[in-house]
Amino acid sequence: MCTVSYIPLNQQDFILTSSRDEALTRKPATPPQRIAIADKTIFCPIDKEKEGTWIATSNCAYTLCLLNGAFLAHKQGGIYKRSRGMIIKDFFTFENKKDFLSNYEFSDFEPFTLLIVQNIPQLEITELRWDGNELFVIEKDANTAMIWSSSTLYSDEMVCMRKKWFETWQKSEKIVSSAETLKFHLYAGEGDPQTNVQMKRASIQTVSITAIEKNATNFRMLYKDIIADKEYRYAFIF
Q1: What's the total number of domains in the chain?
Q2: Mind listing the pLDDT tens digit of every residue in the chain (238 residues)?
Q3: Do the Cβ atoms of 235 and 220 come closer than 8 Å?
Q4: Residues 210, 217: Cα–Cα separation, whole Å
Q5: Under a CB-based contact definition with an 8 Å cutoff, are residues 60 and 40 in contact?
Q6: pTM as predicted
Q7: What CATH number is associated with residue 155?
Q8: Which of 8, 55, 182, 237 is the most exposed place for a label (fewest CB within 10 A)?
Q9: Which residues pair with 64 in a beta bridge?
């Protein structure tokens, strides 16, 4: 998994949307729920197989999203101590991003990309890429819209195609909302299910889409379970 888009709305507001591409043999995830971690309140869907998550927001300054793979497709099937889905939950046991980066044990995990969006006091976005040997910490321009595609599923050519679709879509949208980003994640592409943003292959497909729209005091979350054909909408004031 997966495909992730990020759109800044102003100095504190943003939309983060994740398409989860997963094996059809994997158990369906639990729709987003509120859970407590340390002294924080977290909102996230839960993976039933490993009890982790791939996307979460919180009553503190942080929203996180995980993609499988770092820069390149890696040989899968290795033995790792823990599931990557636990990384986001673990993050919220730390006081802040700096504490997490200084003290977390990344070597326990298969390669991944982790996006950390901070929106208080202003927007910041940090991209972590763990390639199995080294951690790369990249500070991105939080005022620029971006899209990521998992290196385990998409070639460099496919990644470039998706960036072009995203840029074209952005130019055509006068009003951006989580409902509109959901449409992009559902319908963007050129009609090829192998490469469309909502992808479908023999044994893997996009199984859900999660859109988080957040500012300094509240958030809205839209969760679409594609397999069950159900939508869930949440709103919360901190």
Answers
A1: 1
A2: 689 999 999 989 999 999 999 998 999 999 999 999 999 999 999 999 889 999 999 999 999 999 998 886 656 656 667 889 899 999 999 999 999 999 999 988 889 999 999 999 999 999 999 998 999 999 999 999 999 999 888 999 999 999 999 999 998 877 788 999 999 999 999 999 999 999 999 999 999 999 999 988 899 999 999 999 999 999 988 7
A3: yes
A4: 20
A5: yes
A6: 0.94
A7: 3.60.60.10
A8: 237
A9: 56, 116
- Residue 231 token pair: 């939508």
The domain in which residue 123 lies consists of 3-237
Can you name the residues that pair with 165 across neighbouring β-strands?
none
The answer to whether 2 and 69 are in contact (CB under 8 A) is: no
CA distances from 117 to 56, 76, 78, 99, 166 (A): 10, 28, 30, 15, 19
